[in-house]
Amino acid sequence: FETGLSAMGNEKMWSSLMTPTFLFLSFFSVGLPQNPGSATDESDNYPPFWDQINGDIAEFPVQNNKTIIDPWNYLDRLQMYKILITQSNKYFAGFGQNNTGNRFFFNCSVYSAGRYSEPPNSSICAYEAGGPGCISINSGWGGITFYMIVISFLAAIESEFLTNLPYEVELIPREEYRSNFCYSIVECRATYPQVMDAANQYYQYLQSRKIVSIIRDIPKYDTDEDTVIFYMWKLHRTAVEVGQLKFSDISFYSSETERDFTKDFLLAIEFCEDARYRPYFESSAEFLVGFPHRLLTDQDHHILTSSFSVREKALLNSVRLISKVNGIT
Protein backbone atom coordinates (compact mmCIF):
# COMPACT_ATOMS: atom_id res chain seq x y z
CA PHE A 1 0.00 0.00 0.00
CA GLU A 2 1.04 3.61 -0.45
CA THR A 3 2.83 5.02 2.57
CA GLY A 4 1.99 8.14 4.52
CA LEU A 5 5.15 9.83 3.26
CA SER A 6 4.09 9.46 -0.37
CA ALA A 7 0.62 10.62 0.62
CA MET A 8 2.13 13.80 1.98
CA GLY A 9 3.52 14.42 -1.48
CA ASN A 10 0.14 13.92 -3.11
CA GLU A 11 -2.12 16.82 -2.17
CA LYS A 12 -5.30 15.20 -3.46
CA MET A 13 -4.66 12.00 -1.58
CA TRP A 14 -3.75 13.76 1.65
CA SER A 15 -6.88 15.91 1.46
CA SER A 16 -9.07 12.86 1.03
CA LEU A 17 -7.49 11.22 4.06
CA MET A 18 -7.70 14.23 6.34
CA THR A 19 -11.33 13.57 7.32
CA PRO A 20 -11.02 9.88 8.25
CA THR A 21 -7.72 10.54 10.03
CA PHE A 22 -9.24 13.43 11.99
CA LEU A 23 -12.23 11.29 12.93
CA PHE A 24 -9.94 8.43 13.90
CA LEU A 25 -8.00 10.63 16.33
CA SER A 26 -11.12 12.39 17.59
CA PHE A 27 -12.89 9.14 18.42
CA PHE A 28 -10.12 8.06 20.74
CA SER A 29 -9.36 11.38 22.39
CA VAL A 30 -12.75 12.91 23.21
CA GLY A 31 -15.45 11.35 21.10
CA LEU A 32 -16.43 8.02 22.63
CA PRO A 33 -17.52 7.01 26.12
CA GLN A 34 -15.48 4.67 28.26
CA ASN A 35 -16.11 0.97 27.83
CA PRO A 36 -18.45 -0.43 30.46
CA GLY A 37 -16.36 -1.80 33.28
CA SER A 38 -13.14 -0.36 31.88
CA ALA A 39 -10.34 0.30 34.31
CA THR A 40 -9.83 3.77 35.71
CA ASP A 41 -6.66 2.99 37.65
CA GLU A 42 -3.68 4.49 35.83
CA SER A 43 -1.62 1.36 36.52
CA ASP A 44 -4.05 -0.69 34.42
CA ASN A 45 -3.00 1.26 31.34
CA TYR A 46 0.52 -0.16 31.45
CA PRO A 47 1.50 -3.41 29.70
CA PRO A 48 0.90 -6.60 31.71
CA PHE A 49 3.49 -7.24 34.45
CA TRP A 50 4.87 -3.70 34.18
CA ASP A 51 5.00 -3.44 37.98
CA GLN A 52 7.08 -6.62 38.27
CA ILE A 53 10.16 -4.98 36.76
CA ASN A 54 11.96 -1.78 37.72
CA GLY A 55 13.71 -0.77 34.51
CA ASP A 56 17.17 -1.69 35.77
CA ILE A 57 19.56 -3.67 33.59
CA ALA A 58 20.94 -5.27 36.76
CA GLU A 59 17.77 -7.40 36.90
CA PHE A 60 18.97 -9.52 33.98
CA PRO A 61 21.06 -12.61 34.76
CA VAL A 62 24.82 -12.47 34.34
CA GLN A 63 26.90 -15.30 32.87
CA ASN A 64 30.61 -15.18 32.08
CA ASN A 65 30.65 -11.44 32.79
CA LYS A 66 27.87 -10.79 30.27
CA THR A 67 24.33 -9.57 30.82
CA ILE A 68 22.09 -12.20 29.21
CA ILE A 69 18.79 -11.13 27.62
CA ASP A 70 16.27 -13.32 25.81
CA PRO A 71 14.32 -11.02 23.45
CA TRP A 72 11.71 -13.76 22.91
CA ASN A 73 10.88 -13.85 26.60
CA TYR A 74 8.05 -11.40 27.23
CA LEU A 75 9.41 -10.13 30.53
CA ASP A 76 12.91 -9.60 29.09
CA ARG A 77 11.57 -7.60 26.16
CA LEU A 78 9.34 -5.59 28.48
CA GLN A 79 12.36 -4.92 30.68
CA MET A 80 14.31 -3.57 27.69
CA TYR A 81 11.40 -1.27 26.88
CA LYS A 82 11.09 -0.06 30.47
CA ILE A 83 14.83 0.64 30.64
CA LEU A 84 14.47 2.92 27.60
CA ILE A 85 11.49 4.65 29.23
CA THR A 86 13.29 5.04 32.56
CA GLN A 87 16.48 6.42 31.04
CA SER A 88 14.66 8.95 28.85
CA ASN A 89 12.09 10.16 31.41
CA LYS A 90 14.23 13.07 32.61
CA TYR A 91 14.13 14.72 29.19
CA PHE A 92 10.33 14.88 29.30
CA ALA A 93 9.84 16.22 32.82
CA GLY A 94 8.24 19.39 31.46
CA PHE A 95 5.55 17.52 29.53
CA GLY A 96 3.73 15.53 32.19
CA GLN A 97 3.58 14.61 35.86
CA ASN A 98 4.87 11.34 37.31
CA ASN A 99 6.89 10.56 34.17
CA THR A 100 3.78 10.49 31.96
CA GLY A 101 5.11 12.99 29.42
CA ASN A 102 7.55 10.54 27.84
CA ARG A 103 7.04 10.45 24.07
CA PHE A 104 8.32 6.88 23.95
CA PHE A 105 5.17 5.58 25.65
CA PHE A 106 3.32 4.85 22.40
CA ASN A 107 3.80 1.11 22.43
CA CYS A 108 0.73 -1.00 21.85
CA SER A 109 0.18 -3.63 24.53
CA VAL A 110 -0.49 -6.66 22.34
CA TYR A 111 0.48 -9.39 24.80
CA SER A 112 -2.78 -9.56 26.77
CA ALA A 113 -4.75 -9.73 23.50
CA GLY A 114 -2.91 -12.90 22.47
CA ARG A 115 -1.00 -11.30 19.61
CA TYR A 116 2.35 -12.67 20.74
CA SER A 117 1.01 -16.22 20.57
CA GLU A 118 1.84 -18.90 18.01
CA PRO A 119 -0.39 -18.82 14.93
CA PRO A 120 -2.64 -20.63 14.35
CA ASN A 121 -2.30 -22.38 17.75
CA SER A 122 -3.00 -19.45 20.06
CA SER A 123 -2.42 -21.58 23.17
CA ILE A 124 1.37 -21.49 22.63
CA CYS A 125 2.89 -18.31 24.10
CA ALA A 126 -0.63 -17.26 25.05
CA TYR A 127 -1.20 -14.58 27.66
CA GLU A 128 -1.49 -16.01 31.14
CA ALA A 129 -2.63 -13.63 33.86
CA GLY A 130 -0.79 -15.69 36.45
CA GLY A 131 2.66 -15.11 35.03
CA PRO A 132 4.58 -13.83 32.00
CA GLY A 133 5.49 -16.19 29.20
CA CYS A 134 7.08 -16.22 25.78
CA ILE A 135 6.78 -14.34 22.50
CA SER A 136 6.37 -16.63 19.53
CA ILE A 137 8.97 -16.10 16.83
CA ASN A 138 6.18 -16.98 14.37
CA SER A 139 4.01 -14.08 15.56
CA GLY A 140 3.76 -11.17 13.14
CA TRP A 141 3.22 -8.75 16.01
CA GLY A 142 6.13 -10.29 17.90
CA GLY A 143 8.36 -9.83 14.88
CA ILE A 144 7.35 -6.24 14.16
CA THR A 145 7.79 -5.12 17.78
CA PHE A 146 11.22 -6.78 17.80
CA TYR A 147 12.44 -4.06 15.45
CA MET A 148 10.75 -1.37 17.51
CA ILE A 149 12.11 -2.40 20.91
CA VAL A 150 15.09 -4.73 20.62
CA ILE A 151 16.96 -2.83 17.90
CA SER A 152 16.17 0.46 19.65
CA PHE A 153 17.70 -0.99 22.81
CA LEU A 154 20.90 -2.01 21.03
CA ALA A 155 21.08 1.41 19.37
CA ALA A 156 20.80 3.02 22.80
CA ILE A 157 23.94 1.12 23.81
CA GLU A 158 25.73 1.97 20.56
CA SER A 159 24.97 5.69 20.92
CA GLU A 160 26.01 5.59 24.59
CA PHE A 161 22.56 6.73 25.62
CA LEU A 162 22.71 3.78 28.01
CA THR A 163 25.94 4.25 29.92
CA ASN A 164 27.68 2.67 32.89
CA LEU A 165 26.55 -0.80 31.94
CA PRO A 166 28.13 -3.25 34.38
CA TYR A 167 28.68 -5.93 31.72
CA GLU A 168 28.59 -6.44 27.99
CA VAL A 169 25.06 -7.24 26.81
CA GLU A 170 24.43 -10.50 24.98
CA LEU A 171 21.10 -11.38 23.36
CA ILE A 172 20.12 -15.03 23.06
CA PRO A 173 19.55 -15.69 19.33
CA ARG A 174 17.01 -18.04 17.80
CA GLU A 175 17.85 -20.20 14.82
CA GLU A 176 14.36 -19.85 13.33
CA TYR A 177 14.19 -17.07 10.75
CA ARG A 178 17.77 -16.26 11.67
CA SER A 179 18.21 -13.92 8.70
CA ASN A 180 15.16 -11.88 9.74
CA PHE A 181 16.63 -10.73 13.04
CA CYS A 182 19.82 -9.32 14.49
CA TYR A 183 21.11 -9.99 17.98
CA SER A 184 24.11 -7.70 18.40
CA ILE A 185 25.07 -4.11 17.67
CA VAL A 186 27.46 -5.18 14.92
CA GLU A 187 24.88 -7.44 13.31
CA CYS A 188 22.07 -4.86 13.49
CA ARG A 189 24.33 -2.11 12.18
CA ALA A 190 25.23 -4.27 9.17
CA THR A 191 21.73 -5.61 8.50
CA TYR A 192 19.36 -2.79 9.45
CA PRO A 193 21.43 0.42 9.40
CA GLN A 194 18.35 2.55 8.69
CA VAL A 195 16.74 1.54 12.00
CA MET A 196 19.98 1.98 13.93
CA ASP A 197 20.50 5.42 12.35
CA ALA A 198 16.97 6.58 13.19
CA ALA A 199 17.35 5.38 16.77
CA ASN A 200 20.73 7.06 17.10
CA GLN A 201 19.30 10.36 15.87
CA TYR A 202 16.60 10.16 18.53
CA TYR A 203 19.03 9.37 21.35
CA GLN A 204 21.61 11.89 20.20
CA TYR A 205 19.00 14.62 20.20
CA LEU A 206 18.06 13.78 23.79
CA GLN A 207 21.71 13.69 24.83
CA SER A 208 22.24 17.15 23.35
CA ARG A 209 19.62 18.73 25.62
CA LYS A 210 20.68 21.03 28.45
CA ILE A 211 19.18 21.68 31.87
CA VAL A 212 17.39 25.05 31.86
CA SER A 213 15.83 24.98 35.32
CA ILE A 214 15.37 22.88 38.43
CA ILE A 215 11.94 22.75 40.05
CA ARG A 216 11.51 20.84 43.32
CA ASP A 217 14.82 19.08 42.73
CA ILE A 218 13.66 17.91 39.29
CA PRO A 219 15.80 19.20 36.39
CA LYS A 220 13.97 20.45 33.32
CA TYR A 221 15.71 20.10 29.96
CA ASP A 222 15.32 22.28 26.89
CA THR A 223 13.60 19.47 24.98
CA ASP A 224 11.58 20.80 22.07
CA GLU A 225 8.33 18.87 21.86
CA ASP A 226 7.93 19.05 18.08
CA THR A 227 11.53 18.04 17.44
CA VAL A 228 11.54 15.06 19.78
CA ILE A 229 8.21 13.86 18.39
CA PHE A 230 9.64 14.09 14.87
CA TYR A 231 12.62 11.90 15.80
CA MET A 232 10.50 9.47 17.81
CA TRP A 233 8.01 8.94 14.98
CA LYS A 234 10.85 8.65 12.46
CA LEU A 235 12.31 5.81 14.53
CA HIS A 236 8.90 4.19 14.92
CA ARG A 237 8.13 4.34 11.20
CA THR A 238 11.54 3.09 10.11
CA ALA A 239 11.35 0.10 12.44
CA VAL A 240 7.77 -0.77 11.49
CA GLU A 241 8.50 -0.57 7.76
CA VAL A 242 11.31 -3.10 8.12
CA GLY A 243 9.15 -5.36 10.27
CA GLN A 244 6.17 -5.27 7.94
CA LEU A 245 8.26 -6.33 4.97
CA LYS A 246 9.41 -9.38 6.92
CA PHE A 247 6.04 -10.28 8.40
CA SER A 248 3.41 -9.61 5.75
CA ASP A 249 2.62 -13.26 5.02
CA ILE A 250 -0.62 -14.62 6.42
CA SER A 251 1.23 -17.51 8.07
CA PHE A 252 2.40 -15.11 10.79
CA TYR A 253 -1.18 -14.29 11.82
CA SER A 254 -4.16 -16.16 13.23
CA SER A 255 -6.31 -15.29 10.20
CA GLU A 256 -6.42 -13.17 7.07
CA THR A 257 -8.64 -10.72 8.94
CA GLU A 258 -6.05 -10.36 11.71
CA ARG A 259 -3.30 -9.82 9.13
CA ASP A 260 -5.37 -7.17 7.34
CA PHE A 261 -6.16 -5.44 10.64
CA THR A 262 -2.45 -5.30 11.48
CA LYS A 263 -1.70 -3.69 8.12
CA ASP A 264 -4.63 -1.26 8.44
CA PHE A 265 -3.77 -0.31 12.02
CA LEU A 266 -0.14 0.41 11.22
CA LEU A 267 -1.18 2.45 8.19
CA ALA A 268 -3.49 4.52 10.42
CA ILE A 269 -0.56 5.07 12.78
CA GLU A 270 1.44 6.41 9.83
CA PHE A 271 -1.12 9.13 9.29
CA CYS A 272 -1.11 9.86 13.02
CA GLU A 273 2.64 10.33 12.66
CA ASP A 274 2.15 12.77 9.80
CA ALA A 275 -0.37 14.64 11.95
CA ARG A 276 2.32 14.82 14.69
CA TYR A 277 0.12 12.98 17.19
CA ARG A 278 1.45 13.47 20.74
CA PRO A 279 2.08 9.93 22.07
CA TYR A 280 2.40 10.69 25.78
CA PHE A 281 1.07 8.31 28.40
CA GLU A 282 -2.51 9.54 28.80
CA SER A 283 -3.21 10.00 25.09
CA SER A 284 -1.62 6.65 24.23
CA ALA A 285 -3.71 4.86 26.86
CA GLU A 286 -6.88 6.57 25.64
CA PHE A 287 -6.03 5.83 22.03
CA LEU A 288 -5.46 2.12 22.68
CA VAL A 289 -8.67 1.55 24.63
CA GLY A 290 -10.20 0.52 21.32
CA PHE A 291 -7.48 -1.99 20.46
CA PRO A 292 -9.21 -5.39 19.95
CA HIS A 293 -9.09 -7.48 23.10
CA ARG A 294 -8.62 -10.74 21.19
CA LEU A 295 -7.25 -12.10 17.94
CA LEU A 296 -9.56 -11.58 14.98
CA THR A 297 -11.05 -14.48 13.07
CA ASP A 298 -12.26 -14.47 9.48
CA GLN A 299 -15.82 -14.45 10.84
CA ASP A 300 -15.08 -10.97 12.20
CA HIS A 301 -14.47 -9.58 8.73
CA HIS A 302 -18.12 -8.88 7.92
CA ILE A 303 -19.84 -8.80 11.31
CA LEU A 304 -18.37 -7.62 14.61
CA THR A 305 -20.20 -9.42 17.40
CA SER A 306 -21.35 -7.96 20.70
CA SER A 307 -18.14 -9.25 22.31
CA PHE A 308 -16.44 -6.14 20.88
CA SER A 309 -16.95 -2.87 22.72
CA VAL A 310 -18.10 0.36 21.09
CA ARG A 311 -14.54 1.66 21.03
CA GLU A 312 -13.17 -1.55 19.57
CA LYS A 313 -15.73 -1.46 16.78
CA ALA A 314 -14.94 2.21 16.16
CA LEU A 315 -11.21 1.54 15.91
CA LEU A 316 -11.63 -1.49 13.65
CA ASN A 317 -13.98 0.35 11.30
CA SER A 318 -11.87 3.52 11.32
CA VAL A 319 -8.60 1.83 10.38
CA ARG A 320 -10.40 -0.15 7.68
CA LEU A 321 -11.86 3.09 6.28
CA ILE A 322 -8.47 4.80 6.21
CA SER A 323 -7.00 1.81 4.40
CA LYS A 324 -9.79 1.80 1.81
CA VAL A 325 -9.49 5.54 1.14
CA ASN A 326 -5.72 5.17 0.88
CA GLY A 327 -6.16 2.36 -1.62
CA ILE A 328 -8.43 4.25 -4.00
CA THR A 329 -6.67 7.63 -4.04
Write the layout of secondary structure elements.
Elements: H1 4-8, H2 11-31, E1 62-63, E2 66-69, H3 74-88, H4 140-158, E3 168-171, H5 185-191, H6 193-207, E4 211-215, E5 218-221, H7 225-246, H8 256-274, H9 281-287, H10 310-328
Parallel strand pairs: 2-3
Antiparallel strand pairs: 1-2, 4-5
Helix pairs in contact: 2-10, 3-4, 4-6, 4-7, 5-6, 6-7, 7-8, 8-10
Pfam families: Leg1
Signal peptide: 1-33
Keywords: Signal
Summarize the structure.
Residues 1-33 form the signal peptide. The protein is mainly alpha-helical. It has one domain (43-308).
Q: Compute the number of strand runs.
A: 5
Q: Strand share of the residues?
A: 5-15%
What's the arrangement of strands in the largest beta sheet? Answer: 1-2-3
Summarize model confidence as the mean pLDDT.
82
Query: Terminal Cα separation, in Å?
Result: 11 Å
Provide the domain count: 1
Largest sheet: 3 strands, mixed
Radius of gyration: 19 Å
Counting DSSP H or I runs of 4 or more residues, the number of helices is: 10
Low-confidence segments, ≥5 residues, pLDDT <50?
Answer: 1-9, 11-40
Strand-pairing-aware structural class? mainly alpha
Determine the fraction of residues in helical runs and give it as a percent range.
40-55%
The topology string of helices and strands comes to: HHEEHHEHHEEHHHH
| Shape verdict | globular
